[in-house]
TrEMBL record:
<keyword id="KW-0521">NADP</keyword>
<keyword id="KW-0067">ATP-binding</keyword>
<protein>
    <recommendedName>
        <fullName>ADP-dependent (S)-NAD(P)H-hydrate dehydratase</fullName>
        <ecNumber>4.2.1.136</ecNumber>
    </recommendedName>
</protein>
<feature type="domain" description="YjeF C-terminal">
    <location>
        <begin position="9"/>
        <end position="279"/>
    </location>
</feature>
<comment type="similarity">
    <text>Belongs to the NnrD/CARKD family.</text>
</comment>
<feature type="binding site">
    <location>
        <position position="211"/>
    </location>
    <ligand>
        <name>AMP</name>
    </ligand>
</feature>
<dbReference type="InterPro" id="IPR000631">
    <property type="entry name" value="CARKD"/>
</dbReference>
<feature type="binding site">
    <location>
        <position position="140"/>
    </location>
    <ligand>
        <name>(6S)-NADPHX</name>
    </ligand>
</feature>
<dbReference type="Pfam" id="PF01256">
    <property type="entry name" value="Carb_kinase"/>
</dbReference>
<comment type="function">
    <text>Catalyzes the dehydration of the S-form of NAD(P)HX at the expense of ADP, which is converted to AMP. Together with NAD(P)HX epimerase, which catalyzes the epimerization of the S- and R-forms, the enzyme allows the repair of both epimers of NAD(P)HX, a damaged form of NAD(P)H that is a result of enzymatic or heat-dependent hydration.</text>
</comment>
<comment type="subunit">
    <text>Homotetramer.</text>
</comment>
<keyword id="KW-0456">Lyase</keyword>
<feature type="binding site">
    <location>
        <position position="212"/>
    </location>
    <ligand>
        <name>(6S)-NADPHX</name>
    </ligand>
</feature>
<keyword id="KW-0520">NAD</keyword>
<feature type="binding site">
    <location>
        <position position="44"/>
    </location>
    <ligand>
        <name>(6S)-NADPHX</name>
    </ligand>
</feature>
<feature type="binding site">
    <location>
        <position position="94"/>
    </location>
    <ligand>
        <name>(6S)-NADPHX</name>
    </ligand>
</feature>
<dbReference type="InterPro" id="IPR029056">
    <property type="entry name" value="Ribokinase-like"/>
</dbReference>
Length: 282
């Protein structure tokens, strides 16, 4: 038996955000490398880069096809689109695993050989287990069921939806990585038995691209905590829970700003700095 599930609170989240200090520069704060988006899904890259930038990372290095780079730069001109050293990778949002170009395969191999912590999302979930760096995966129920089936664990989407905690936990043990299973209640588990939940405050979150925003928030938190992660890889689950909490709270604030009305993915990214400001004041 692992630990009981613990709902991640505002005070828990406040322990995992930090403001830069006088001695910092963009590199010491952490650089997030992102291999996301594709000609079919350029928006996923734009959403993830915007969310990561607004979470307060030192630099985002975006690696992707020319047209997607242009879209990213139009929204976030501070993004650097040349390769270089990074402290963490976010890989897979908006990538079709069945349509990886030769160039993309090379970029993926290079990223996964670099041994810095990795967030694997959407079209990169199949890469779990191909590298040794600390890893957190961010599937929704269908993606988790598909991934487990490829690893010879018989499970259906309906079964994952009926027992998300049990399957997040099982996946963490089977795959040997931290798992953030998305849903109205997000379950975060790791192979050592850490288990956290984040219960979404608003169901407006159930719309296209909000998962890409969550990936950006998490990637930024992982990059900015690279020093702690180098000492203790278990920190990944706490960063994942914090990312889910910030995401939920940003959606709540964005909806509250329109009297409880609908929010779209970019609205959530735009609310992130205020959420982080509030956490820093605690
Ligand atoms: N702006 C962007 O760039 C965005 C990019 N995104 C990126 O897209 C990629 C794919 O992610 P995803 O989670 O959407 O796809 P996936 O897990 O393959 O599920 C497909 C399943 O859905 C079902 N289905 C489809 N239509 C349906 C319908 N009308 N009503 C009911 N069911 C329907 C379909 O069922 P079928 O039609 O086969 O019966 C199939 O089972 C991923 O890389 C992500 O990052 C997204 O974040 C969005 C914003
Ligand atoms: N019914 C719901 N209520 C609240 N949050 C939800 C609900 N359904 C999904 N979410 C959240 O919305 C996000 C959807 O992410 P994802 O499924 O990856 O979508 P996309 O691929 O379109 O970005 C996740 O953060 C998930 O936890």
């Amino acid at each position: 038996m692992g630990e009981p599930w613990q709902e991640w609170t505002v005070d828990d989240a406040a322990g995992w955000v930090r403001a830069p200090h006088a001695g910092d520069d963009k590199y010491s704060r952490g650089v997030l490398g992102m291999i996301t988006g594709s000609p079919d899904y350029p928006g996923a890259a734009v959403l993830g880069v915007d969310a990561a930038t607004r979470t307060g990372v030192g630099m985002v290095r975006y690696i992707g096809p020319r047209g997607v780079r242009a879209a990213v730069l139009l929204r976030r001109p501070e993004t650097v689109t040349v390769s270089g050293r990074v402290q963490a990778w976010l890989i897979g949002s908006g990538i079709d695993p069945g349509r990886r170009s030769f160039m993309l395969q090379g970029d993926l191999q290079h990223a996964l050989a670099s041994r810095v912590p990795v967030v694997l999302d959407a079209g990169a979930l199949d890469l779990v287990g191909t590298h040794t760096a600390p890893t957190v995966i961010t599937p929704h129920a269908r993606e988790l069921a598909n991934l487990l089936v490829t690893r010879e664990v018989e499970v259906t989407v309906a079964e994952v939806r009926a027992d998300p905690g049990g399957w997040a936990d099982r996946a963490a043990r089977e795959l040997g990585v931290a798992v953030l299973l998305k849903g109205a209640v997000t379950h975060i588990a790791d192979p050592d038995g850490d288990r956290y939940t984040v219960t979404a405050d608003t169901h407006w979150l159930a719309s296209a691209g909000t998962g890409d925003v969550l990936g950006g928030i998490l990637g930024a938190l992982v990059a900015t905590h690279h020093e702690e992660l180098a000492l203790n890889a278990e920190v990944l689950t706490r960063l994942a829970a914090t990312a889910a909490w910030i995401h939920s709270e940003a959606a709540r604030r964005a909806s509250a700003a329109v009297d409880g009305g609908p929010v779209a993915a970019l609205d959530i990214a735009e609310a992130v700095p205020q959420v982080i400001g509030g956490l820093l004041q605690r």
